[in-house]
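> example.struct
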């Protein structure tokens, strides 16, 4: 699953000081920080491997992380939509962003990867819409839901 970190967003502080958006020749905006998350289901838990690629941080071009969750601890998975601030050329814009998340039995909502897309709240302000090329987020969500259902049915929960 491909996701991005927009400049000035709540996720941006976890990455390099310089995150920029650039509009490609195809008219789509792209971020300088991209995350790629891979899901590895096992018998009792799911492991996620995320590689971060930051084009401005050549000292450590890749940042890798792993997480794992036992199926019994996951209640659901969803695409969570919320509002975040993005700073483009020193101007703040409010965006509606979307992120994949797990709801856990502890009540925690664990957000996975970065943003799958970002749409300006006020399109009249001239802020770009940030929609990734088909990152298969809907297919990933459907596959994760199917996996969780099958694991819950087998365990009787």
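> example.seq
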């Amino acid at each position: 699953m491909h996701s991005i970190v927009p400049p000035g967003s709540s996720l941006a502080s976890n990455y390099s000081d310089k995150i920029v958006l650039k509009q490609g020749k195809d008219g789509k905006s792209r971020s300088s920080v991209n995350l790629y998350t891979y899901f590895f289901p096992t018998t009792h838990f799911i492991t996620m491997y995320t590689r971060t690629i930051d084009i401005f941080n050549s000292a450590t071009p890749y940042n890798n992380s792993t997480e794992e969750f036992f199926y019994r601890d996951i209640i659901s998975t969803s695409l969570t939509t919320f509002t975040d601030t993005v700073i483009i050329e020193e101007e703040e814009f409010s965006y509606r962003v979307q992120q994949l998340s797990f709801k856990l039995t502890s009540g925690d909502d664990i957000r996975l990867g970065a943003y799958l897309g970002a749409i300006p709240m006020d399109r009249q302000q001239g802020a770009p819409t940030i929609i990734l090329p088909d990152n298969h987020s809907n297919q990933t969500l459907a596959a994760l839901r199917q996996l969780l259902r099958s694991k819950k049915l087998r365990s009787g929960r």
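> remarks
The mean pLDDT is 87.
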